[in-house]
Structures are given as C-alpha cells and as structure tokens.
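Fold sample X.
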Amino acid sequence: MNVVCLDLEGVLVPEIWIAFAEKTGIPEFRRTTRDEPDYGKLMRYRIDLLEKHGLGLKEIQEVIAKIDPLEGAKDFLDALRAKTQVLILSDTFYEFAMPLMKKLGYPTLMCNSLVVDASNRIVDYKMRCELSKLTTVKALQSCGFETIAAGDSFNDLGMIRASKAGFLFRSTDAIKQANPDLPAFETYEDFLNGIVAAL
C-alpha cells in the first residue's frame, strides 16, 4: 500500500511568506526553508519581524485569501489522487492553510498551529511533532505503508530520503546540486509521471 507525501508551499501553492513580503514591501519576510534549514530559528525570526512591524495573523490571512494554487497544481493533485493516496505534509499552519485547501479540493493536510493573543499578535507556534515530516513518514511506514515523498526545501529532505522513492520539485539549484541522486522535476506532467512510475 502506497501513500504519497507532498510538501505544500512551493510544490502546490506559492510560498505564503514570499507573498506576504511582496504585499507588505518588507523583503526580510522572503526568507523560507529554502534559505534556512533550522525551522525553529526561521519561525523565531518571522515572529520577531512581525512584532517589529506591528503585523499579525489578520494581515497574513488577508494576503492568503488572495493566493491561488500554482498553475496546474489542482489538476496534478486530482490526477495523482485518482491513482493513489496522497497526504500533504507541511510546516505551515492550519490558520494559514485552510483557504488554500479549499482551492485544492480539500486534500488531507497535516501541519502545525499558531499561538495568537487577543490582539491578533502571533506570539508562538506549536509543532505537531518534532521533525514532523520525517516523523510522519516513519509512522506511516510502521503502519505498513510504503511512502513516496516530494518537496522543494531543506525540511523536505528527511522524508524524501526515508521513503522508497523521493523527488525534488521546482527546488533551488543549491539543493539540487547537493542532492544529485534525487530526481528533480520542473513540470507537473513530468512530476506525475515520475511518481506514478514509482508506485
């Protein structure tokens, strides 16, 4: 029994923090897991930056409401789900992701949650579990599933390496060069064909 585990941002939808950086005109928000492998460090940086500029959850959600999935993402996901089970594993937050899940046809999503105070400030975050993507893949394997995993960032490499097959999708040149053994795709058609061949 196979289950395909996909990253969300950069694979199916645009990077939320990059969209937020563009909307606010604050380039420091462009920093993502493609740039910073330490997720805890990255989130503390983001929370401090939000505080510095007096921005909170409401402002981020207003930007997210206008984000659409990447062109071709929903068709790709629908075609893949017709062939096998698919699970979205993301380090994003439910408070961010649900409007995007609606636009993708409500695939199953496992992600994290934010701690927000009464004045809309994001004060902390709660990870679902440590190394959530890798931990989830190992848990699925312990239940008898064979996993195939794909993503675009540093925080996807654990689940990709632990799976029977793993792929990069629209990743950075640096990540691709550091992982030359991982098949890397740029189009949804090639990506779908690569995953289906691994089933």
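Fold sample Y, listed below.
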Amino acid sequence: MAIQPFDDRDGVIWYDGRLLPWRDARLHVLSHALHYASAVFEGERAYNGHIFKLSDHSRRLHDSAKVMGFAIPYSVEQIDAASRQVLAEMKFKDAYLRPIAWRGAEMMGVSAQSSKIHVAVACWEWPAYFSPEARLKGIRLDWAMYRRPDPATAPAKSKAAGLYMICTLSKHAAENKGYNDALMLDWRGRIAETTGANVFLVQDGKIHTPVPDCFLDGITRRTVIGLAKARKLEVVERPIMPEELKKTQEVFITGTAAEVTPIAEIGEHSFTPGAITRSLMDDYDLLVRTAPSAAAE
C-alpha cells in the first residue's frame, strides 16, 4: 500500500494567519529551523469534532517557544481559533492536529536573533497511533539506544523539534528489531519515557510514574493521573529504576497519539494488561469521546 506523502495532499493549512492550499504551505530550504532545529510544536487529537485540551496545548506551545528564546506572534486564543478553523475546513471529526512555530530564513548561522517567527497548524485523519490489535493486547518495547539528557544540557521543558532526534533514532532501531517502540532511560539510568509517551507502572495496586524532571509532563499524563485519582487509585510520582520492572504487574503509556496503551513487553520483561490499565483506557476513551466540553478545553 502506497504511503501518501505529507507534502502532496488535498485540503488547507493555517499558515501565518491565513488558510493556504495544502501544497502551497512551504518554507525555504535555508530556514533556520531546518538547519538548527529552532522549532517547537504540539500534537493534538480531535474526537467527534472537538479538540481535546486545546488551550492547554496552545499554552504549552507558547511556553516552549519562550524556553527556545522566541515569542509566538499569535495569542493562545488566536492559535485555538486557528486550530478549530482548520479542523472545520478539513471536515474531520476524528483527527490529529499539528501546530508548529519556527524561525525563518532571515538569518543563517547559529545566531538568528532577527529571524521571523512563523506559525502553522495542519490537520489530518489519524484514528490510531498503534493498531487496534496491538493496543488491546499490549505493545512491545525495546530498550532505547539513547537516553534523555540532563536538563542542564538541553531545553527539556520545551516540546522542541531537536529533542526528538534521539527519539527517531531509538524508535527506528526498535522497529528494525520487530518492536513497536523503545523505552528511554534518563542520563542517570532511571526510567524516563518512551520515544513519544509517558510511562506508568502498576505495583501491588498502586500506580507509579517517573518524575518528569528531564522530559515533558504530558497533558495526557496529567489527565490520566486525574482519572486514576477519581477512582481512588494511589498515584506515586518518584524516581524509578529499570530493575523495578521485575516487581511490576502492569505497564501502560499515555500520550496524545498513544492515548492509554498497555505494554506487553519491555526487553526481557513481560506483562499482562490488567484491570487498572483497562479501567483507565475505558475512562480516557469515555472522557474524550463523550464529553465535548472536557475535550474542547
């Protein structure tokens, strides 16, 4: 089956304040972001025509840009409106949205103080990140080839394009070995996250999750913690070492794309999706698909 490239599709993309035909939304080869990764982005999901936690994502886009040393020339409210406009124009109900902001081509070099900041929002249909079969029985993770860096060496609190280079390399290596994804450690050897989702461990009825001090405290992560607490489940945020997998009964990941997905295998460790994972999967699916007011904001 041929893959439809992302630069050759029908539809529109919101680009610097106006809608452009999809194929016309282009940037110059000497844009600073292409050479120096000076870009920040978001990933959002729409369910039944409503964008889940939209303003949270737009605010985080602004926060990421500040960490990267630039200001986005559109307010949170304007980006919210642009996202809704693109979704409506594309006539999708269940979709993925990608807002992105980047430094343009006015300066070429490490310094780019005078570069124009561009912003775009694209939208496409994307019903599932992992196949329905994999999501039900749990996905397989390899150990990532790279680690999350010390926050003193990288802008860890920004959803910045450059931070995903090691994710792409690690995910490709895992896929080439037959795995779905890879679990990353941090620079201290602690469990951190997968290449695009936060991770949770269930041990004796309690939910444990790494402290997000060198990776993003995901919006879906916070949502699922809230759902767990609503069920009176104890959630413990703490440093977690890899050897703790031996005493772990369930593992699941959370993210805008992954939603809530159980883990069946991490390297040499095997797990069976259990009652806690399944209940949170159901709670999350119910929240995003049947509560438009919650999904919209």
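Sample Y note: Residues 293-297 have pLDDT under 50 and may be disordered.
Also: The helical segments are 32-36, 54-67, 76-90, 132-137, 165-176, 219-230, 275-290, 292-296.
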